[in-house]
Amino acid sequence: MTALASPWRSAARSETGKVRACNEDAVLERPGAGLWAVADGMGGHAGGALASRLIVDRLADLALEGDLPTRLAQTRQCLQQANRQLFLAASHAAGPTGSTLVALLAAGPRAVCLWAGDSRCYLWRGGRLYQLSRDHSLERQLIDRQGLRPQQAARHPDAQALTRAVGIDERLVLDSLELETLPGDRFLLCSDGLHRSLKPVDLGTALDLPLATLAIERLFAQALAGPARDNLSAVVIRR
What is this structure's pTM? Predict the structure, then answer.
């Protein structure tokens, strides 16, 4: 029996940027398996790079089978194992070692976004940009719990501090959002270095291009034209 070709097309890229000495990000692109991810390491150059790479490598080796709920359960279990490994390793290190994670799983017409931290998942549909993920950061917490306006929350000295990530707690808590996809949908997974470098209108303009490769080229050309103080990573997925 001939396997059906994947309806998904994607492109991925990761850059160190103009200031950082090391790239602590890692990206995963498995269109045939319907799995993509961006991980943004934390805890210092070596520790952050190892954390993000460990997560991506585990997801790369994951044998995904069954329908979307089954694949989601397999992915969650895989990430829990990675979390335990990083959490135990941190007890022997000088400080915490972990990574943000945003992933997209697709099976048939349905997809699910899964995340911990402030790496994001966006959807471009019908000429509009939607942020599907919700940051796990102090900045977002100040907005949600204390009613601060985004401009006020962004001025807090610890605004970018993470409230959730892979490897920083004994048990990993992941958020997820499942949706029905439509032909022509474009998804963007990216680290905070990229989404903080560009305005939403820039993201939408890039995602509106006809090919995932063209969208990636546009996103990085614009981000690298700016200060690029952080690592930059993105995956564009098109149905």
Answer: 0.92
